[in-house]
Structure formats: C-alpha cells, structure tokens
Write a structure and sequence with these properties.
- By secondary structure, the chain is mainly β.
- It is built from no helices and nine strands.
C-alpha cells in the first residue's frame, strides 16, 4: 500500500516600514512521502510589499527573492533524481482582509521563477494561486 502525506510549515513575518510599504520573510519547510518515496522542500525568501492603503490591509503588490531546494528520497538537490536547488524570485498581487484585531485572510496570485530540474539557469515555473490564513501579534 502506498503512503502519501505532506506536512507543510511556513512561518512568515511582515513589518510596515513606511505608510504603504512593508518588508518581510518566509521560511517554507515541507516534509512528506509520495508513493513510498520521501520528499523534502526548503525555501527562504525575503519580500517587499506595496499596499494601496497606508496600512497592512487591502490590495498589495509583492516582490520576493530567495533560495529554495527540493530533494527526493534523500538525494538533496540531485537533478538526476528530480531534485533541485537555486534562486527563486516572484511577483505577486493579492488582497489582505483583516478580521478583528488578530486574524487575516490573504488570497493572492503569483508568478514564480525558480532554478529547476534539468536547466542550468532561471526559468519560469508557474502561476501559483495562494491563500494565507493567519494571525497577528
């Protein structure tokens, strides 16, 4: 019997540095198994974000730059086995909805570039829809 499962942890922070601009970062850690093969993803990305309103609320445009790596069956960044490592960059548009003092929902759409499997340069990977549900403190 095949076991499939994924545990994803993506802590992030964002800090307002000017009335319409914030900076932040995201750490992505994914652990899992697909068809009885272990998989692992690591990503660390810095972001700059512009908000239409002078607060961490409403429509935003986001640019990110970082590093990511993906390994299959313990073969870290081995392109011959489907892994990769390298730079990543993204452009994102979204909307942050704040409910009460400490809860938010953030739907978005991003275009992500990343070093990928058989290529030795940055190439576009895909459009990525996103939905972040979080809290503030």
């Amino acid at each position: 019997m095949e076991d499939d499962g994924l545990f994803a942890l993506s802590p992030a922070f964002e800090y307002l540095v000017a009335p319409h601009f914030s900076v932040g970062g995201v750490l992505d850690l994914w652990f899992g198994e697909h068809s009885n093969i272990d998989i692992f993803y690591f990503g660390l990305t810095a972001h700059g974000r512009w908000y239409y309103k002078p607060a961490l609320d409403g429509f935003f445009l986001d640019a990110g730059l970082g590093f990511n790596a993906f390994s299959i069956d313990g073969k870290a960044a081995d392109r011959d086995h489907g892994g990769f490592s390298g730079l990543t960059a993204s452009l994102k548009a979204g909307y942050k909805l704040i409910f009460g003092k400490n809860f938010f929902v953030e739907p978005s759409m991003a275009y992500v570039y990343s070093k990928w499997k058989d290529l030795d340069f940055i190439t576009p990977l895909e459009w990525e829809p996103g939905l972040i549900i979080g809290g503030t403190f």
